[in-house]
């Protein structure tokens, strides 16, 4: 699939039913009738008691929902259905009725709301939602850079040849990455990314 901006969520009473239903729903991609109606635009995923159908367009997503309803009814499954669209600025699944930003001002407002949400979560949990990470060519270079950044008041965590600094949100992580990039050796790799571990964050 080139795009999977639409998602049908099928919720089952328990995980066992979801596991039984997933192979049935996966066969939608190869069934002749479904293939004629959907092409090859559907991907199937699962998590817990839910199965997800991913589609590139709203039309394909709603058609996938209709086919899934019919197929599951034939096999006597009870399930709830919901369809959502991926919001690229908010970075989450939204109801299709939520309008996408069309102007630069609206895009800026959406981005600011995302930053505010990330910052609020960082402050509420005390854990960084984002981080700036630097991968250094050698252990000694990592030690030297970590010491320099620490002397500037940054809460650096170092592991052998890489180091990370936690941030409240994406923009702060990018600003930290820019700062670290200016002070790191030229052959270091520095990037801003979602924080996969529990880190303290930096107050700006």
CATH superfamily of the largest domain: Ribosomal protein S10
The SSE string, one letter per element, is EHHEEHEEHEHEEHE
**What share of the residues does DSSP label as strand, in percent?**
15-25%
- Low-confidence stretches are 199-204
Describe the protein in words.
This protein has 204 residues and is of the alpha+beta class. The chain folds into two domains: 6-94, Alpha-Beta Plaits, CATH 3.30.70; 126-194, Alpha-Beta Plaits. Helix content is 42%, strand content 25%. It contains six helices and nine strands, in the order E-H-H-E-E-H-E-E-H-E-H-E-E-H-E. The protein has helices at residues 15-26, 32-38, 58-74, 104-125, 139-151, 170-183; strands at 6-11, 43-47, 50-55, 80-87, 92-94, 130-135, 156-159, 162-167, 189-194. Strands 2-3-1-4-5 form a five-stranded antiparallel beta sheet. It has a four-stranded antiparallel beta sheet with strand order 7-8-6-9. It is elongated and about 65 Å long. It starts with 5 loop residues before the first strand and ends in a 10-residue tail after the last strand.
């Amino acid at each position: 699939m080139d795009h999977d901006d639409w998602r049908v969520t099928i919720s089952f009473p328990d995980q066992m039913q979801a596991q039984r239903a997933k192979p049935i729903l996966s066969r939608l991609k190869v069934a002749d009738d479904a293939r004629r109606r959907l092409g090859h635009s559907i991907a199937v995923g699962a998590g817990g008691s839910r199965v997800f159908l991913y589609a590139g367009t709203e039309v394909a997503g709603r058609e996938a929902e209709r086919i899934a309803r019919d197929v599951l009814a034939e096999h006597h499954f009870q399930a709830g259905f919901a369809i959502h669209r991926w919001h690229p600025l908010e970075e989450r699944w939204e109801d299709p009725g939520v309008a996408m930003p069309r102007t630069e001002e609206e895009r800026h407002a959406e981005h600011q709301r995302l930053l505010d949400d990330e910052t609020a979560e960082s402050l509420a949990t005390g854990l960084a939602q984002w981080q700036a990470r630097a991968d250094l060519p050698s252990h000694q270079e990592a030690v030297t850079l970590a010491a320099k950044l620490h002397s500037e008041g940054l809460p650096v965590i170092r592991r052998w040849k890489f180091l990370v600094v936690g941030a409240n949100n994406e923009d702060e992580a990018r600003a930290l990455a820019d700062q670290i990039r200016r002070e790191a050796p030229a052959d270091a790799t520095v990037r801003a990314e979602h924080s996969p571990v529990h880190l303290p964050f930096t107050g700006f």
